[in-house]
Amino acid sequence: MEVHQLTPFLSVSSQLTAADVGLAASMGFKAIICNRPDQESHDQPDTDDIRAAAERHGLEWRYQPVVSGQITDTDVAAFHELMNSLHGPVLAFCRTGTRCTTLWALAEAPRLDVDAILKTTAAAGYDLTAQRDRIKALAGTHSHAEAMHTASRKRHDVLIVGGGAAGQSVAGSLLQRQPDLDIAIIEPRSEHYYQPGWTLVGGGVFERRETVRQMGKVMPDSVKWYHAAASGFRPEQQQVLLEDGEQIGYRILVVAPGLTLDWDAIPGLRESLGRNGVTSNYLFDLAPYTWELVQSTRKGRALFTQPPMPIKCAGAPQKAMYLSCDHWMRQGVLKDIEVEFCTAGAALFGVADYVPALMKYVEKYGINLNYQNNLIQVDGQAKTALFKVTDAEGNSQEVEKPFDMLHVCPPQRSPKLISESPLADAAGWIELNPETLQHSRFGDIFGLGDAGNTPNAKTAAAVRKQAPVVAENILLALKGEAPRAIYDGYGSCPLTVERGKIVLAEFGYGGKLQPSFPLWLVDGKEPSRFAWLLKEKMLPWIYWNAMLKGHEWMAGPEILNHRPADHEATQACDFGDRK
């Protein structure tokens, strides 16, 4: 928990957890204000849990949700009333603390000098210069000319939305090509995660701490970091709106926000996670619980679920299952555990060439395969899961299954930031050219990673190949040229079929196999010890030290010698200043 003091009466913080409340009480706070709406993101702690913790510690609790990027005068007035009604010191929190700080700044406008307000917020780590004119307006000294100047003065050659694997990799690739390029990244998180490692945390191979680093240590020094969430796009004005209302301009925009894990799409799931035998390797906090359950389960029924596509790393639900079964087999208890793989799909894996190798392990572990079984409800206390089961004729029925362990892969969707924006296609994903990764309607926008609508596997391996393509095409676009770097849909899924062996699935668009290594070294259609070594030892190092820094080993883009004819009419445009 990072607390930033604005006044002796009020401090602000990024997202709190229930565990943070006791620490806040020990620091002398008497009240907590939550300015973040419930269910704003998939990783957001349950507000009711935080409220209950506040009540247990004798702290006053106030819930004043404010929509990111849409702070109204009514919101400001309500915050001012809260301040007058509470006994301090008060701790207010939202996703990053920016909304709370902005509310305070605007509420204090009538009585404090604007420079004093901005100096105070800057000292607390929040740059609210974009709010200068609104603060002045509330104080009665607003200048329209100054407002226009302030709104347009922050502009970058390349603006990246998202500081995850995709956003950082593009920045690294761009800086390798043009070190003096003016780049900014919008990212609200303070931590950066190596998500592919969570499978191995859940399998007892990695420690959770090995998969996380501070965002500031990952971010390139020359990149401007807006430690805030984006709240909207204005492609016609070449602007991105931040959660505090600030507008950031760009010449080229890269959109890479990832996707949303929709835990609330399954009633009962969110409140069951981390207890009653319900877990998921898709969360940093829960992967260790998976390993605890695997170690403690000696008999009964273990269910592993997979929702309808698209999902990130489509093999991850199986990886958790195979590693669990391998441990149980080594401990001699697998014979007493009924293992079921319940997938909403109609096949074990989307690329048929790898299915025979996987089926050998399904048979070895005695796993029951249940196709077209979609998890629709969880009752953690009763330890039952409800599935919608569809037969070959399309008839459906609901089937309840008891469990002792339940590993869930949640449904996944495009973030509202994208799905409700002008950048989205009809299904809500970023509308991209599948080869150039340029937006299909806005030539100065590119996208990559999990939020794109390109028909490739949503994996970190895909991002490793996409980032150089986007970087190359951005530099062409900045010169007014059409994109010529091509992405072939490459994705990889190292399927951990047992501890020490992996089926290394590598494929591109249409399921075409794209092996990276000679057959004598790795036959991707067979389990391999070399592939395990690659997954356990080499890929994490490559991720942190090469991929994020723009070193494109075995990932250089294919660049066409001539501009594709079908792009000439629609993609060529002026990427300079718009009038």
Automatic annotation (TrEMBL):
Residues 156-271 form the FAD/NAD(P)-binding domain. Residues 4-109 form the Beta-lactamase hydrolase-like protein phosphatase-like domain. GO terms for biological process: sulfide oxidation, using sulfide:quinone oxidoreductase. The keyword Oxidoreductase applies. Its cofactor is FAD. Gene3D superfamilies: FAD/NAD(P)-binding domain, Protein tyrosine phosphatase superfamily. Pfam families: BLH_phosphatase, Pyr_redox_2. GO terms for molecular function: FAD binding; hydrolase activity; quinone binding; sulfide:quinone oxidoreductase activity. InterPro entries: BLH_phosphatase-like, FAD/NAD-bd_sf, FAD/NAD-binding_dom, Prot-tyrosine_phosphatase-like, Sulphide_quinone_reductase. It comes from the Bacteria. This is Sulfide:quinone oxidoreductase. It comes from Marinobacterium iners DSM 11526.
